Amino acid sequence: MQIEFRAIVHSEYGAPEKVLTIAERQFKTEDLGVDDVLVKVRARPVHPGDIHILSALPQGGPIVPIPEGTLRVPGFEGVGTILQIGTNPEAAKRFSEGQRVAFFPAMGSWAEYVVVRYESLLPVSDEIPDQIAAQMLINTVTASVLIKAGHNSLKPPITPPVYILQNAAASGVGRLLTQVALDRGVRPIRLVRSNESAERLRSALPGPPVYSTSDSNWKQQVREALGGHKLNVAFDALGGKAIDDLAELVDDGGSIINFGSLQSNIGANIYSLAPNNLSLKSVSIM
After folding, report:
1. What is the mean pLDDT of the chain?
2. Residue 262, Cβ neighbours under 10 Å: how many?
């Protein structure tokens, strides 16, 4: 059987509004691989990383050439319904046609259909809406990897209370990181870029302090929130000068863990790390 569907595609890299278009695609179900599953996509997110890759920005990683005469479909995560399962009996044991699943990684999710390895699927209950299910895997994995990297950065003995500082705290990963930290008894201090974002975050996720970096005294506010306790780990999703700002607050021998460049792909001033003997670490999922 041949399926015809639409996909968002591009043949070259550049600004999304200039290079993206919609194209008709075809897929023959008899070409489905042994370990593959054909999924009808219900929702897919637009991650910052998607835009970085599309725009060929340095933070998007190495540029994979698009062969002449072919089209690339962006996206690597989403949620959908299983249409057909390959012949691997293990896949048939774990999943069934018509089942709703989240998937990651799956190259080409910005389409109406996508082919996914069965190991990359996760069943989704009806209680979880598509908007959440479509982005819950990469963000959850990232938050878990971050908290582990933060724990591994602490020097023994670890004496409670343990504080962390996180920027971009209103983002999907930021909110998950806050929750994972709280579940482990860690005390997060959250940073956002505007007072409006701070108010929304306090309302949506009350509890840990939230400060706007648009306030001239936000660093003093962070120091007061620490109450004399040490800050040994900070998480950065912005890059550039944001790392320099965090470096002013992290205590001697501490670590800044970077996992994104939402603000800038211009490197931090490494000399900002020197006064307190800080280390800068990077976490990447893809």
Report:
1. 92
2. 19
CATH code for the domain of 31: 3.90.180.10
Q: Which two tokens stand for residue 97?
A: 């046609």
One domain, residues 47 and 114? yes
Q: Is the pLDDT assigned to residue 47 strictly greater than 60?
A: yes
Query: Nearest to residue 119, comparing CAs of 9, 1, 34, 216?
Result: 34
Tally of domains in the chain: 2
Residue 193 · residue 209 · CB < 8 Å: no
Residues 6+ apart with CB under 8 A from 148: none
Query: Which residue among 114, 134, 154 closes a domain?
Result: 134
Distance CA 51, CA 8 (A): 13
Write the pLDDT tens digit of every residue in 187-246.
Answer: 999 999 999 999 999 999 999 999 999 999 999 999 999 999 999 999 999 988 899 999
Summarize pLDDT for 86-117 with one digit per residue, the tens: 999 999 999 999 999 999 999 999 999 999 99
pLDDT of residue 239: 87
Query: What is the span of the domain harbouring residue 243?
Result: 138-282
- Please answer whether residues 119 and 78 qualify as being in contact, where contact means their C-beta atoms are separated by less than 8 angstroms: no
> CB under 8 Å to 199, separation ≥6 — which residues?
none
Among 68, 103, 134, the domain-final residue is 134
Write down the pLDDT at residue 217.
98
Using an 8 Å Cβ cutoff, are 115 and 135 in contact?
A: no
Q: Closest Cα to residue 140, out of 106, 114, 178, 168? A: 178
| Per-residue pLDDT at 277 | 62
Handedness of CA 170, 173, 175, 178 (dihedral sign): negative
Question: Helix, strand, coil % (nearest 5) of the chain?
Answer: 30, 25, 45
